[in-house]
Protein: Ribosomal RNA large subunit methyltransferase H
Amino acid sequence: MNISIIAVGKLKEKYLKQGIQEYMKRLGSYANVQMVEVADEKAPDNLSENEIIQVKEKEGERILSKISQDTFVIALAIEGQAWTSERLAKELDQLATYGKSKIAFVIGGSVGLGKAVLNRSDLQLSFSKMTFPHQLMRLILSEQIYRAFRIIHGHAYHK
Structure:
């Protein structure tokens, strides 16, 4: 299985990089997982609604350029479905069973994901109704993908 985590912006925090690297290393025995960063747009706190839409559109174009037609896309969005870790494992296992070997998880930037990316997604997944920093979501998602593969393979870890 080939999994891409497509994220907006450059990760700067050393502690997050270290955590993600650890999960990427652990995931190596289960799947080919890569982190793909796309440039973010400058987004000061006082953007108008129109400017927010423009930022989402520009970042969205960069995201979509990294996704092939045969990729199953899971967009992380507060409005998405909320799953348990076991459900994520089941869904990933079913995708692999039915020939969906390319999966992309998409993490938006500070203003979220635009309509084009959400429309391209096959699924919208919510980790919480709370808002998390998009940089931290990379670590949380990496851990949950690792946990899902541990569950799929019946290994102790997920409890």
About this structure: Residues 134-152 form the longest helix (19 residues). The two ends are 24 Å apart (CA to CA).
